[in-house]
Write a structure and sequence with these properties.
Blueprint lengths: L18 H14 L5 E3 H11 L2 H10 L14 H12 L3 E3 L3 E4 L1 H12 L6 H8 L5 H10 L2
Antiparallel strand pairs: 1-3, 2-3
Helix pairs in contact: 1-4, 1-6
């Protein structure tokens, strides 16, 4: 009788699912595109979903001046939630009742990354859209879901 053997081998993990990458992505959103360095969870998921597609990024960038969001629904990514949990555990992100904010340590890390040229490629895009995706816009869409 033959035996089947399974042997685990290292498997590459795409960057979007690596905790440190996701933490830096969240810090970038809070630092560059959030008023007061704060954001709701649903807004973070919207921006995370937008960052996954060049078409969505361009579509949003062209209509952001009109204070509208062209998307009626978007995806929820568990990797973002894991990144938030790790960021909170590391003291880089603070969780309040219904939002997340960047801590002093998180800001210092972002400044250090910028100084050393280690920012994520998304940082340029987030600086470009600025604080145009407001909580009010996101909440308006969410209220229509009911």
């Amino acid at each position: 009788m033959s035996k089947i053997r399974f042997q685990r081998k290292p498997m590459p993990l795409i960057a979007d699912y690596r905790p440190i990458y996701k933490i830096f992505q969240i810090l970038s959103v809070l630092h560059y595109s959030s008023r007061g360095g704060k954001s709701s969870l649903i807004r973070l998921h919207l921006i995370n979903w937008i960052l996954k597609s060049p078409e969505r990024k361009e579509q949003l960038a062209t209509v952001i001046e009109d204070s509208t969001i062209p998307f009626k629904v978007w995806g929820i990514d568990p990797a973002l939630n894991f990144g938030l949990q790790f960021g909170v555990a590391q003291g880089l992100i603070e969780q309040n009742k219904d939002n997340y904010s960047i801590t002093k340590e998180g800001k210092e890390l972002m400044l250090k990354a910028k100084k050393e040229g280690q920012e994520l490629p998304e940082s340029t895009y987030l600086q470009r859209i600025g604080k145009g995706i407001t909580e009010t816009l996101v909440q308006g869409i969410v209220e229509k879901w009911n």
